[in-house]
Amino acid sequence: MKDLFVSKDARGVGLGERFMRHLAKYAVELGCQRFDWTAETDNPRAVAFYDELKASRVEEKLYFRFSDTDLKAFADSSKD
Q: Does residue 2 lie within any of the structural domains?
C-alpha cells in the first residue's frame, strides 16, 4: 500500500480502520499472504493507529528511495 489518508475532518470515526479492513479482505480474496505498508517515523498518530490495529512492525527492513535529481542521475548513469 502506498498511502492511506483520511482528511482531518473525517478522523476519529473509524474510517481508517474500515479502509484497512477492506484492503485486508481484498488481499485475502486475491490469495495474498501478506499486506505491507510504511509509516513515516515523524507521524506518531499514524504509528499509533497501526499499533492499535495490532499490525506487526518489521524492524529488520530498511526503506530506500531515489528522488528527483538523484533518480535522474542514477537513470542516466547506465552501464549499458
A: no
d(C-alpha 39, C-alpha 42), whole Å? 9
For 16, other C-beta atoms within 10 Å of its C-beta total: 19
List pLDDT tens digits, range 28-50: 999 999 999 999 889 999 999 99
What is the domain range of residue 36? Answer: 8-76
Q: Are 55 and 24 in contact (CB under 8 A)?
A: no
Total structural domains within the chain: 1
- Distance, in Å, from the CA atom of 15 to the CA atom of 49, rounded to the nearest integer, reads 12
The CATH number of the domain holding residue 24 is: 3.40.630.30
Q: What is the pTM of this model?
A: 0.77
28, 32, 33, 35 alpha-carbon torsion, rounded to 10°: -90
